[in-house]
Amino acid sequence: MLSAKIEKIAQDIKTMRIRGAGRIARAAAKALKIAAVGSQAKSPAEFSQEMERASKILLETRPTAVSLPNALRYVLLGLKQTHGADLWTMKKAVISRADEFIKNSLEAVKKIGEIGANRISNDDVILTHCNSECALSIIKTAFRQGKNIEVFVTESRPVWQGRLSARELLKEGIPTTMIIDSAVRHFIRDVDKVIVGADSIAANGAVVNKIGTSSIALAAHEARVLFFVATETYKFHPETLVGRLVEIEERDPNELINLKRYPGLKVRNPAFDVTPPEYVDLIVTERGIIPPYAAYAIIQELFEWRPGERVQHTGNKLKPLI
Ligand code: RUB
Fold first, then answer.
1. Which superfamily does CATH assign the domain made up of 111-321 to?
2. What is the pLDDT of residues 153-191, one digit of tens each?
3. Among 199, 216, 229, 284, which residue has the most ligand 1 atoms within 8 Å of its CB, making it the best to mutate?
4. Which member of 124, 130, 181, 281 is catalytic?
5. DSSP 259
6. How far is the CA of 82 from the centre of ligand 1 (A)?
7. Are 147 and 177 in contact (CB under 8 A)?
8. In the predicted model, is pLDDT for residue 65 greater than 60?
9. Which residue among 210, 274, 322 has the greatest number of ligand 1 atoms within 8 angstroms of its CB, and so is best to mutate?
10. What residues have CB less than 8 Å from 168, skipping those under 6 apart?
11. Which of 44, 226, 245, 292 shows the smallest number of beta carbons within 10 Å?
């Protein structure tokens, strides 16, 4: 029964009913809380095993957004710190760490909006891609401050997340224009700033985000249009410090085309791509604005990592991420 609830959340993440790196992270933290609240474990060891099992189910959903493992890490670190405690204390630790993660995550989105809005000027035309809470937080905050802005949203095929962004922006009353993904270079000279979110930030400052982001960054770079990335610090990827690459999710070809009608057709459907740090002007985090090259220092500090050390998923050297 309990694992059915966790499986359901995992399935919702896999099928993108719950999507976007921040929302996925909060759903994962909430899933561990549900697992803790409903646990029938009879011993601390049994409880720890249940939490590990639930984490494993959640980890196997989508591979690219590091927000998900980092959320689990955050919650499980609370559990680890209760070492030797009774079952009740362990449960309480998971529940309060999950609540804390969710609260901090929502506050971070708000703070990113406030910090990023300082970089938006009156009459700016902003282009955004996909549907990022953090990017939209900046745009909405700037608009609520009374700045006169306009937004271009890309369709973000094949899953059309641009429609979500368009709906959100129109609800705010922000003038919004939708364009097809391949029209970005055509319109880039009408744009003052590009703002996108992130699924993972690597130690060298490379940004992993929705497929198409790197082409937009290239067009912005060519046209000398500012390119901003909005992200909470729990999307910085600790394993990239020790050489691991961020896995790019390849999704079902049927998101693009009904394969039954095209027998023999090969389809590639990567959901994300990598934008090199050279094309990123700045990264807006809840801790302030940083250049992409500061990613190394941020990851080192957040994870208390020293060169040569191993990075573990639930390593006890992990400090709170936000
Ligand atoms: C979503 C996506 C978003 C980031 C950041 O991809 O690429 O730009 O996740 O979003 P998908 P947020 O729709 O495939 O999950 O700022 O909301 O965390």
1. Translation initiation factor eif-2b; domain 2 (3.40.50.10470)
2. 999 999 999 999 999 999 999 999 999 999 999 999 999
3. 199
4. 130
5. G
6. 33
7. no
8. yes
9. 210
10. 131, 136, 140
11. 245
Decide: helix, strand or coil at residue 213.
helix
Q: What is the pLDDT of residues 119-131, one digit of tens each?
A: 999 999 999 999 9
Tell me how far apart the alpha carbons of residues 52 and 235 are, in angstroms, rounded to a whole number: 21
106 dihedral zone (left: phi>0; alpha: psi -120 to 50; beta): alpha
**Under a CB-based contact definition with an 8 Å cutoff, are residues 250 and 271 in contact?**
yes
Instruction: Please say if the pLDDT value at position 75 is more than 50.
Output: yes
pTM, two decimals, is 0.95
Ligand 1 atom closest to 137 (CA):
16
Sketch the domain layout of the chain as residue ranges: 4-108, 111-321
Beta-carbon contacts of residue 198 (< 8 Å; ≥ 6 apart): 21, 132, 134, 207, 208, 209, 229, 230, 231, 235, 283
Ligand 1 residue neighbourhood (C-beta within 6 Å): 19-22, 65, 130, 132-134, 161, 196-199, 209-210, 271
Active-site choice (124, 134, 181, 199):
199
Correct CATH for 4-108 of 1.20.120.420, 3.90.220.20, 3.40.50.10470, 1.10.357.10: 1.20.120.420
Q: Would you state the structure tokens that stand for residue 263, as one six-digit string?
A: 């027998």
Torsion of CA 257, 260, 266, 270, to 10 degrees: 40
* Separation of CA 56 from chain center: 19
Which residue's CA is the closest to the ligand 1 atom numbered 7? 210
Q: Provide the token pair at 277.
A: 């740090």
Nearest to 211 by CA among 237, 266, 248, 252: 248
